[in-house]
Amino acid sequence: MELNLEREIKLSVGSAYTLPDLGTLAGVAVDDSGVEQIETTYWDGGRLELARNGVGLRHRRRSDRPGDVGVWTVKMDGHQDGDRLVRTEHVVPADASAPPAELLALLPAGIDASALRPVAVLRTARRVLTVREAGGEAAPAGGAAEVVDDHVEICTPEGSVVERFRELEVEVKGEGEAITDRVAARLRESGAGLPESTSKYRRALRALGHDL
């Protein structure tokens, strides 16, 4: 099981928003992943006990890679650090059939694991830009900012689309605090909205008619 500390700034944008050329920032280099297709399924109890405890349990796979079994992730309740949302996440590679036991063991006391089921599906066209110091490393040890541009469809577990939205995330990689702030400022200058803390999961639940 892999443990990560996620530090990110979430920015809302409209569908017509155009990403600025981040390569024009002084002293940086930009790596572009191209567009990836991702399917994320969130699991919860009948009363949405995980969401109400600030916990997210999901399975995510690359839908554009046949045979990709994907990974399971538990995200624990986080906190705001300035503009950043800080959360811990535990990741286990496994297929989508059932949550791994080692992740279920991390859930809050009183959660009935046998009652967990898929409650929301997100289909995402994702583009990732890694912004790093020119001549530096893109790996976390080198320090970088990862800009995630997500075009998202919120779906029922049966696959019906109920809402679409777009979101930017600027995630700190390694010692990339300063470059993350520079990138977020450039995105704001180009029309991105204020930082927010609402997770994709909570946004999906509200779109599906759940009152949280």
Tally of contiguous helical segments:
4
What is the number of beta strands?
A: 10
Strand fraction: over 45%
Secondary structural class: mainly beta
* Major sheet attributes: 8 strands, antiparallel, barrel
**In which range does the helix fraction lie?**
10-25%
Mean of all residue-level pLDDT scores: 94
> What is the terminal separation in angstroms?
30 Å
Rg over CA atoms, rounded to whole Å, is 17 Å
How are strands sequenced across the largest beta sheet?
1-6-4-3-2-7-8-9
Helix and strand succession? EEHEEEEHEEEHEH
Uncertain spans: none
So what's the overall shape? Answer: globular
Features:
212 residues; mainly beta; eight-stranded antiparallel β-barrel; 4 helices; globular
Q: What do these coordinates show?
A:
- The protein is mostly beta strands.
- It contains four helices and ten strands.
- It has helices spanning 49-52, 101-104, 177-189, 200-207; strands at 2-13, 28-44, 56-62, 71-75, 79-81, 84-93, 117-133, 144-155, 161-173, 195-196.
- Strands 1-6-4-3-2-7-8-9 form an eight-stranded antiparallel barrel.
- Strand 8 and strand 9 form a beta hairpin.
- The longest helix has 13 residues, at 177-189.
- It is globular, with a radius of gyration of 17 Å.
Annotate the secondary structure layout.
Layout: E1 2-13, E2 28-44, H1 49-52, E3 56-62, E4 71-75, E5 79-81, E6 84-93, H2 101-104, E7 117-133, E8 144-155, E9 161-173, H3 177-189, E10 195-196, H4 200-207
Antiparallel strand pairs: 1-6, 1-9, 1-10, 2-3, 2-7, 3-4, 4-6, 5-6, 7-8, 8-9
